[in-house]
Amino acid sequence: EIIAWEAEEIEAISSLFQARVPQKPGKKLSRERPLPLPLPHKIRPLGLPTSKNLVRTHLSRSQRQPISNQIYKNPAFLIRLAREIRSLSPDDDVSKVLTRWAPFLRKGSLSITVRELGHMGLSQRALHVFCWVQDHPHLYPDDRILASTVQVLSAARELKMSFDLNRLIALASRSVYEALVKGSIDGGNLGLAYRILSAATEGKRTLDCGVYAKLILELGKIPDKAELVLPLLEELAKRDDFELTQQDCTGIMKVCIRMGRFDIVEALYDWFRNSGTAPPSVVMYTTLIHSRYTEEKHREAMAVVWEMEASDCLLDLPAYRVLIKLFVALNDLPRTVRYFAKMKENGFRPTFDIYRNVIGIYRDTGRLAKCRQICREAEMAGFK
């Protein structure tokens, strides 16, 4: 039987060899290709956490470390040793606690334990720990535990030995030397601390600036010792590596105000601001304003007030006390009223001197009704 092909079928078969499929009349050829499906690795959110394999590797690595590496500088463990030593009976030796841990300790480890015993008031136990360490060659000699022991004993005034300062300067390391000064200051033996620092100066020994600051702050609290502060300040001023924390700098500024050395106050403030370590705090601003107020430089003090306002630092109660006192001295009633209201809005209770200053400026400006109102408010607050 002969199969007859129609013309349309022949054209369709021929088009297969030409890579083209003919469309029926009236049907449009779609030239748009569908978008590919998104691949899973390309649609994950960014910032995926570390894979479990990496975490497991890190944990296993830390668990594989020797136990000595995990405890010999762990503060929690070393403080716990001090507590265990504290719980010993007076007849028990510290070796009862320390011997079992001896293989896992390193040089300097027990310096934290010694300092903690000092905080507990157990200076003799701290000395016992030091003596125990001396019997273990892998723990001693070590300046860190020696410095800690010296500081604890000198703070408790139990460092009973006569020593030659010149020999001490020649033999002691810087850390031990500074520990002796700090311990003497903590123990209230300021005369000894001053002698040691003076000997260090004569022996061309350089100590940390913070040690000088610590002694200056303590001497500044005693009126009879104020004359000892200036030589220490002069020694600090000669240092090329002069460096103070903001807290120490502010504290020394307060000492200088009590001594009437306002020039040193200004120099310290300028040094700190130019150092760029941190912006001045509200305490430092308040100290400088108080210094200029005490020196009766009220207009210059206002310049610091504007600088403090521009820095947007939050005021505390001492700052409000100094500012209101300054505004009253300038007879600036609007500022006094504004800061008095702002102080109460911020939750601070006015002190007696604040009430007295506000009442005084209302009285001096003829605002007698307002004066009586503030008087009643002060009486309700318990002031008479």
Alpha-carbon distance between the two ends: 133 Å
Q: Tell me about the biggest sheet?
A: none
Task: Please work out how many helical segments DSSP would assign.
Answer: 21
In terms of per-residue confidence, which ranges show pLDDT below 50 for 5 or more consecutive residues? none
Number of strands: 0
Element pattern in H and E: HHHHHHHHHHHHHHHHHHHHH
The amount of helix comes to: 55-70%
Oligomer: single chain
Strand content: under 5%
* Shape estimate: flat
Overall radius of gyration: 38 Å
Query: What structural class do helix, strand and pairing data support?
Result: mainly alpha
Mean pLDDT: 84
Report what the structure shows.
By secondary structure, this protein is mainly α. Helix 14 packs parallel to helix 16. Among the domains are: 69-203; 333-383. The protein is built from 21 helices and no strands. The model has no long low-confidence stretch (mean pLDDT 84).
